[in-house]
Design brief:
The structure is a single chain. By secondary structure, this protein is of the alpha+beta class. The chain has 3 helices and 10 strands; from the N terminus they run βαββαβββαββββ. The protein has one domain: Cupredoxins -  blue copper proteins (Immunoglobulin-like), CATH 2.60.40. β9 and β10 form a beta hairpin. The longest helix is centred in the middle third of the chain and has 18 residues. The chain is globular and about 35 Å long.
Length: 160
């Protein structure tokens, strides 16, 4: 039997644990993701591939060889429209990581996209730490990745 590590939970429980009060906190779902070198573990076939990386260049080389194949077999997150918190953990990468979720056709160089399209990102994920990235997703296609620990652009499909 295959164990699925992707877990969702009520943000309300997390909000209480961290002492965060918000009227809308109960509406969000938490999606937990674990980053190891060059990948998000929960969505890749086979789980943690055991890659090692000391820099972005290491992941660039690994992904050049394996990224397309891994992405082709990666789990696509199927979600309903709504509020989400992506709770991302840097399990064992020895440098700061980040997280970036955005509409599939988002182009950061296009100033109109910054005004009209969904894009949420942040960094500072040190080894062993976890950070939350809050986003509201409407029907459509999205991708997520880590530009600092280069990962493939994993897919999210929001329908409902």
């Amino acid at each position: 039997m295959k164990t699925v590590l992707l877990r969702t939970a009520s943000l309300a429980a997390g909000a209480l644990a961290f002492g965060i009060a918000s009227a809308n906190a109960e509406e969000a779902e938490v999606i937990e993701l674990t980053q190891t070198a060059c990948q998000f573990v929960e969505v890749e076939e086979g789980g943690d591939h055991g890659y090692t990386s000391n820099s972005k260049a290491d992941c660039d080389a690994i992904n050049a060889k394996t990224g397309d194949q891994r992405l082709a077999s990666a789990k696509v997150l199927s979600l309903k429209p709504g509020k989400y918190v992506f709770r991302v953990t840097n399990k064992n990468v020895p440098y700061d990581l980040g997280f970036w979720v955005r509409e599939h056709d988002y182009d950061f160089r296009n100033p109109l996209h910054k005004l009209t399209k969904t894009s949420v990102s942040g960094g500072g994920l040190k080894t062993g730490t976890t950070k939350d990235y809050e986003v509201t997703l409407e029907a459509g296609e999205y991708i997520y990745s880590c530009p600092l620990n280069p990962t493939p652009n994993y897919r999210i499909v929001v329908e409902g």
